[in-house]
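Researcher: Please translate sequence to structure tokens.
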Amino acid sequence: LGRYKEGLTYASKALDISKKLLGDEHQMTAMCYTSVGQLLGLLGRYVEALDCHKKELEISKKILGEFHPKM
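Model: Translation complete:
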């Protein structure tokens, strides 16, 4: 519990792997951005967290469309 820095390290690695293997516009990559964003928020790094969440939203809109229920 509370090991957010360690979690951020692993989530960032997962994001890098996802981008490399699946590409920048894959749903799994978007989910990785969400994980990184959540951890950054928990660490008080709000501007970086917001950037990650915006990137996730951008990818999801491209994949799912703007009117998908998730949006």
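Researcher: Any highlights?
Model: Residues 21 and 29 are 10 Å apart (CA to CA).
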